[in-house]
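Notebook, bench 3.
Goal today: get a predicted structure for Tetratricopeptide repeat protein from Mesorhizobium waimense so we can plan the truncation constructs. The sequence was checked against the plasmid map this morning, with no discrepancies at the termini. Length recorded as 323 residues. Pasting the sequence as submitted so the record is complete.
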Amino acid sequence: MKAMTSLFEACRRHAEHFGAVLRTANTRYLASENAPPDGLVLFDRERQNIEAAWRWISENAEDPRAMELCAEFPNFGPYILSMRLPARAWQSWLHSALQASGQCGAKRTQASHLGNLGVTHRRLGNVDQAIAAFEAQIALARELQLPQLEATAEGNIGLCHADRSDFRKAIEHQEINLRISREIGFRRGEAIALGNLGNAYADLGESERASRAYEDQLAIVRVIGDRQGEANALGNLGLVAIDVRDHVHAIEYFGQQLSLCREIGDRIGEGNALFSFGRAYDLAGDVARAIECTEEGIAILDETSHPLANEAREFFSKLVARQ
């Protein structure tokens, strides 16, 4: 019995240590200006140990000594984990952590996991489940008086409606997101809301309103140093350029987006940018270059389990047929 207790404590200390490593990696990732970011280098080096720690935690989550760690562990590195783990693996982590946080009565942690789970459901194409997670997050955010979290969840629900092509409903939720973000001085949230509004206007064919929203977004993210947001805004401006058949500016925007995504280690963004490059080069009449970029994009989108991979494959097939 004593030996089993000692083994349990040794495993718990191992898990706590690599939870701290994960937190450090996440912090370094957010602060790094290197390419690749220091945090990703640290995570990749210690990935086996971090994943081994999580396996032990999740397998022992019913034990009170591991339950609290199970509730908190994914929050130590949400940015890195959402990028590096396959979507279904990340979903599994979040389900376990959500259950543990509920058992611990950690409502703020629950709210955080609900948001990340909603994002992951949406990434996997499960829109109904995503909306349910975000609505539950909003209820907790209001109970806990967390307006920033409420604004973010409203924006995410807007994205879900956009996935269903209900763009007017999407705009309604993004305007709530924008209003709350401005009321509380949440500049990053304001930028995200503007970007999402731009997307909805673009989908409705209102290119001028979309461009204005993206330009406002780009101005904010450059001021606050949000490089991920900058990459997103540049990509969106490129897509509007494609809509108005301006391949010159589209290629310019996508080039800046691709460089930024590679610098910050955003594999999903890199895949998106390469697919977009394919569309821009096709518009320019350079089918060979379009095929090359699209094929590279598909490989990355498949690697990250992104639903856009299917659309990219269809586009690729049409390009090859025309070659």
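Residues 1-102 form one domain. DSSP finds 16 helices and no strands in the chain.
Flagging this for group meeting.
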